[in-house]
């Protein structure tokens, strides 16, 4: 009689210490929120900063989620990801400017319709750009990390220069749609309407991505490809097509993030995506390669920490996220929730 195969213990069979270690990444967010409250002292200031941090984190997550899947599934270090953020912002803002009558109307329906059309246009353009980027620039350097860094940085520079050609070299200032201007007051705290919208969009997108990855066949293939690509190919699936699809989806999400970040900052520049790549890579690294859940937690930690530290000690804000990444990697060298081992 053959022995039954060993199975990985389920969460319910783990010891208390093992359960705490497993759940700790998810507990970091409430722990940071409580520490922020104790350090800030003022409930109204704390609530305002928390909403701002969550909004910032959600937008970083949108930009980083596609990159972390590309990292995990394709083993590609794509420094050109920031170019999709910039292009998405410029395309989306161009649509919003063209729909000035809609964004200037005191109608939530017209305002949201304008944003929706801007987002759709940005995602379509950046998705198509991502397909071309993968075909021309990334495909020839699969498996060669140094070459990937060189050619994707070159692609980033070229696309930034093309933005200068099409839209000009100057930064573009934009106004948010009329009904998203200003703030709402709750418990004495002023919370900007747009930041509340950003939190909602980020949550919906995270839930949708989680459901797609866990409840659909394509999601199963993607997750299996991240963990063991050769085995998935041996089963007859065309993982190469999945690679391209994930790259296009990641590029489109970067475009969505670019539109939202542009409206958040109310100004866009050709180099905005390049500047965001520092935070995006920090999130992808501390979350764990290939992990959408890890990227989500990491992005919220980055957003909350930067807002809390900027309020308490502005001079330390620039290094706070580097310190966060260092601490997490010393604790878990492969990130908080890695799907694949570091390569």
UniProtKB/TrEMBL annotation:
It is found in: Cell membrane. The keyword Flavoprotein does not apply. It is a multi-pass membrane protein. GO terms for molecular function: transmembrane transporter activity. Keywords: Amino-acid transport, Cell membrane, Membrane, Transmembrane, Transmembrane helix, Transport. Coiled coil: none annotated. GO terms for biological process: amino acid transport. GO terms for cellular component: plasma membrane. The chain crosses the membrane at residues 23-40, 46-71, 83-102, 108-129, 149-167, 194-213, 241-264, 276-304, 316-333. InterPro entries: ABC_transp_permease, BCAA_transport_permease. Pfam families: BPD_transp_2. Belongs to the binding-protein-dependent transport system permease family. LivHM subfamily. This is LIV-I protein H.
């Amino acid at each position: 009689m053959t022995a039954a195969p060993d199975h990985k213990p389920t969460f319910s069979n783990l010891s208390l210490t093992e359960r705490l270690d497993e759940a700790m990444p998810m507990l970091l967010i409430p722990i940071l929120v409580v520490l922020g409250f104790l350090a800030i002292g003022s409930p109204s200031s704390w609530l305002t900063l928390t909403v701002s941090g969550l909004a910032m984190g959600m937008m970083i997550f949108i930009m980083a989620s596609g990159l972390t899947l590309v990292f995990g599934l394709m083993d590609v270090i794509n420094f050109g990801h920031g170019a999709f953020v910039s292009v998405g912002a410029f395309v989306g803002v161009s649509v919003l400017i063209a729909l000035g009558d809609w964004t200037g109307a005191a109608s939530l329906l017209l305002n949201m319709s304008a944003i929706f059309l801007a987002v759709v246009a940005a995602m379509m353009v950046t998705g198509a750009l991502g397909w071309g980027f993968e075909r021309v620039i990334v495909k020839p350097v699969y498996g060669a990390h140094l070459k990937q860094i060189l050619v994707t940085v070159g692609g980033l520079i070229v696309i930034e220069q093309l933005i200068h050609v099409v839209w000009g070299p100057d930064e573009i200032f934009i106004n948010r749609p009329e009904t998203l201007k200003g703030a709402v007051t709750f418990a004495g705290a002023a919370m900007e309407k747009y930041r509340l919208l950003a939190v909602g969009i980020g949550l919906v997108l995270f839930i949708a991505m989680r459901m797609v990855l866990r409840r659909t066949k394509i999601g199963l293939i993607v997750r299996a490809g991240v963990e063991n690509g050769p085995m998935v190919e041996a089963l007859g699936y065309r993982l190469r097509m999945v690679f391209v699809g994930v790259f296009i989806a990641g590029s489109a999400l970067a475009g969505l993030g670019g539109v939202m970040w542009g409206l958040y900052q109310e100004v866009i520049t050709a180099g905005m995506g390049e500047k965001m790549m520092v935070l995006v890579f920090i999130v992808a690294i501390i979350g764990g390669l290939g992990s959408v859940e890890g990227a989500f937690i990491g992005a919220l930690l980055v957003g909350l920490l930067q807002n809390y530290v900027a309020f308490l000690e502005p001079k330390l804000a620039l290094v706070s996220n580097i310190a966060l990444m260092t601490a997490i990697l010393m604790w878990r060298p492969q990130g908080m929730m890695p799907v694949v081992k570091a390569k």
